[in-house]
Amino acid sequence: MQISKEQLELVNNQVKRLIQSDNFYGKRLEEAGISQVTSQEEFLKLPFSQKQDLRDAYPLGLMAVPEEEVVRIHSSSGTTGTPVIIPYTAKDVDDWGEMFKRCYETAGITNKDRVQITPGYGLWTAGIGFQNGVEKLGAMAIPMGPGNTKKQLQFMEDMKSTVICATSSYALLLAEEIAKEGIQDKIHLKKGVIGSERWGEKMRNRIKGELGIEIYDIYGLTEIYGPGIGISCKYECGMHYWDDYLYLEIINPETGENVPDGEWGEIVITTLVKEGAPLIRFRTHDISRIIPGECACGCKYPRIDTVMGRSDDMMKIKGVNVFPKQIEEILGTFEDLSSEYQIRISHLDGRDTMRIYVEATTGHVDFADMATKVSQAVKAKIGFTPIVKVVELGVLPRSEKKSKRVIDERFQ
Ligand code: ZN
Fold first, then answer.
1. Kindly report the CA angle at 305 between 304 and 309, in degrees rounded to 5?
2. Is residue 403 over pLDDT 50?
3. How far does the centroid of ligand 1 lie from the alpha carbon of residue 112, in Å?
4. How far is ligand 1, taken at its centre, from the CA of residue 260, in Å?
């Protein structure tokens, strides 16, 4: 998506701020001899920033304002190494709240709603982000935090919560618990705002069905404010994002070049007005695409598609970029297949081949016929023909890690 004149001016302000602040990116700009950005061409010459840069800046190397202006920090989980610390000014906190309020409004939530918040409070950006948005909107926040399902259900009943904010897995757990207790008629939920995990259509439909609510997907990452920088609308065709706060690019993760609107690639985000820790061209490693055209809801904010996975999961077959999630979604449309699968990619007779192993859940399926159907579905949706093998239930290895399901024999 072409950067607008207004966005370019804001980026230019950010560049000046970063150089003045002498933070890691400011130094990088100085080294590159860049002091301003006045065109798209110049913008595209700005270096990317990466999660590793943020780790290297630990603890406060990201700070781009005098310390007395910082009112809060957040931190992303340090499970893979040094945590990342993001400083926020009062204006950053306020801007984030505005964006979150806009998310709730896009979901049709009003100041008459009672919003039960189950994501965690603390160093990370989840619970408190949901809360800020509720308060800005003027709705009633019920700040439960995670866990203690019994209490969650009691409050849901007694407080007559109309909105639930949760991860997809917790929403499903609550739905199942409600069904088990047989208290559906005491629950007043109308909408769910679901964030922070990748999830498929199947799970989404189960939550929708079990709770009888509308579901909205929220997007965000700690490095860029937190959740609330984008949300799906009732038409469920991607997520609107707030382009007056953020400029999004979609790049080919291999070359770093922008791809045309509509094509899949990695989301790269530039913050336009952030003060505490502005980020320029931050590589999220999330895979999505810009959805061209206007949304049926009439909202003018642009859209990205549901995040399809991480750029590290990308497979390139016969010149087509493929993500395990895409295959998974297709397999999910077949009733007689289990959720297990294995993908093997090899280089045979001078060409790339993808073999997909799937499990039939019943013996009544014609394996050859099923294989043809799956193969045709992949061809229709993604654009190349895989070799599909159907096997009996339980044959494929069970693994916790999704990545283990893809074996690329080309590099072995
Ligand atoms: Zn829309």
1. 115
2. no
3. 22
4. 21
